[in-house]
Amino acid sequence: MSALHPLQNDSRRGAPARMEPLAKLPVFLDLTDRRVVLAGGSEGAAWKAELLVACGAFVDLYCPADELSDTFRQLLANDAASQQPRLTHHDRPWSLTSFEGAAIALGDCETDEDAKAFYCAAKAARVPVNVIDKPAFCEFQFGSIVNRSPVIIGISTDGAAPILGQAIRRRIETLLPPTLKSWAEIAQSIRGVINERLNPGTERRTFWERFVDRVFREKPAENIGDTLVREAEAIARASETETGTGKVTLVGAGPGDAELLTLKAVRALQSADVILFDDLVSSDVLELARREAKRMLVGKRGGRESCKQEDINATMVALAKSGKRVVRLKSGDPMIFGRAGEEIESLERENIPVEIVPGITSATAMAARLGVSLTHRDHAQSVRFVTGHSRKGELPTDLDWSKLADPSVTTIFYMGGRTAKAITDKLTSFGMSPSTPAVILSSIARDDEQRWVGMLSDMPQAMGEIGYHNPVLIGIGDAFIKAKRADGERSETDTIATFGTITG
Fold it and tell me: What's the average model confidence in pLDDT over 58-83?
């Protein structure tokens, strides 16, 4: 491949979509001073009325007085005593004329026949309608709400599990700082001034990224609004003196599980203009990127069509010189067999700023999955990472096999799937026992992960059974004597029956 290709619904490579399918479109509706029709006087209807009033709506309630719940009666009394009443009670059932001029309509109906009548009447009046607890007659739904207004978080399970939605809401509540509401109000108050001071694009995004860092780090200080405006002015002055060159951030995506990303990696993804990602980066990780970011697949896989490294380097340079914030997203850690050194050198030659965000390399992820310490004091005094794949697709010719054959040193071979037999032959020829513990993990920390735990002598056959289509990592040494299989059992070298099992 002589050139890079932007991600253009790249189904031929199995590239992830920019947006996965949605059961419903989450929309935040402005109901300030708008009329809403509500039919029914139950406890559930009272909750909906309270919610609508909190949104600033004027609610026309249609319900005979003798059908009102005690909660609704108290709600009406409290509203009538307020400075600006927003609930109007009509002591009668709804009619076809009730929907005129309404923004939305909500009905609390006992039977499907009543629900259908209310639904059809609202539809005829072209008013969006929701019948409480009857999803077949709903054009929109209410989800669980986290209220830090003006920050509002809506959670929907598409009616599948409301209790799950409530549990998610409770979890989110514990994660949000108590000062979030205050910070959001500050943002509202200064937004106009910030937009006057800063140009759209990089300048504004830089300001708001720094603002967000404050939100999750500290309480708003007195006169913080003035401080923030001064910071915006400083960003504007710095922008005037800059050459317009962007920057490149090399980000480690880890082995595949998005939950293993660092917070700094997530922030980089969410501030990127362009993302150049490896073939091994999972769709879950890409899902955390900024929606507007352009994505370019620059995969390099053994035995497959690949992008040339010089083309990747040239693309990063060109994008950064055009003022873009570029994220070079690499599987695992960018500094471990990721050719990061070549990319850094090419960027530094062009005086382009480079930042490195480390990731969890596959070796440490493998150790966690197997439940072993790579440097267990009873088995290993050191650990080494070795490439099992040279530029020619063979074992490197300059490896010191006499040292690699020491089982008291944990050795991890990257990219060694196709050279597994050669690795075994080399190690045994230099004196390593064929019964030395060995492990193979394929697609580490992903849904299709496979693992094999066994002895060095059986490793080539196991590698053939696992296959070469997915990335593999090979671990060899006494540290793996009690490695866990996928079923949770631990293997012992003196219990051959537990060895040689491929699990996924």
Answer: 96
Q: Can you tell me whether residue 203 is helix, strand or coil?
A: helix
Confidence category of residue 292, pLDDT binned at 50, 70, 90: confident
For residue 187, is pLDDT > 80?
Answer: yes
Kind of pairing, strands 472-476 and 437-442? antiparallel
Angle at 74 between CA 73 and CA 79, to 5 degrees: 100
- Residue 311, burial from CB neighbour count under 10 angstroms (0-12, 13-18, 19+): middle
Q: What pLDDT score does 45 carry? A: 95
Q: Which of 343, 315, 323 is nearest to 7 (CA)?
A: 315
Would you say residue 341 has pLDDT above 60?
yes
Q: Could you confirm whether 425 is annotated as catalytic?
A: no
* Identity of the amino acid at 223: N
Nearest to 215 by CA among 159, 267, 279, 262: 267
Give 318's contacts (C-beta < 8 A, 6+ positions apart).
none
- Which pLDDT score, from 0 to 100, does residue 391 have? 76
Let me know if 484 is a catalytic residue. Answer: no
Cβ atoms of 404 and 382 within 8 Å: the answer is no
The overall average pLDDT reported for the chain is 88
Residue type (1 letter), 301: R
Query: Which residues of 310-368 form beta strands (DSSP E)?
Result: 325-330, 354-357
Which pLDDT score is estimated for 89?
A: 97
**CB-based contacts of 396, cutoff 8 Å, min separation 6:** 387, 389, 390
Query: Which residue in the list 264, 294, 300, 426 is annotated as catalytic?
Result: 300
**Do the beta carbons of residue 385 and residue 412 sit within 8 Å?**
yes
Residue 247 exposure: Cα atoms within 13 Å on the Cβ side: 13
What does the pLDDT read at residue 496? 34
52 near 59, Cβ under 8 Å?
yes
Whose structure tokens read 């051959």?
496
Asked if residue 150 has a cis previous peptide bond (ω within 30° of 0), the answer is: yes
Question: Is residue 499 predicted with pLDDT exceeding 50?
Answer: no
DSSP string, 247-261: EEEEEE-BSS-GGGS
Residue type, 47: W
Rounded Cα distance, 273 and 247, in Å: 10
- Catalytic residue (choose from 114, 257, 273, 278): 278
> 125 exposed, middle or buried (CB, 10 Å; 0-12, 13-18, 19+)?
middle
Q: What is the DSSP letter of 79?
A: H
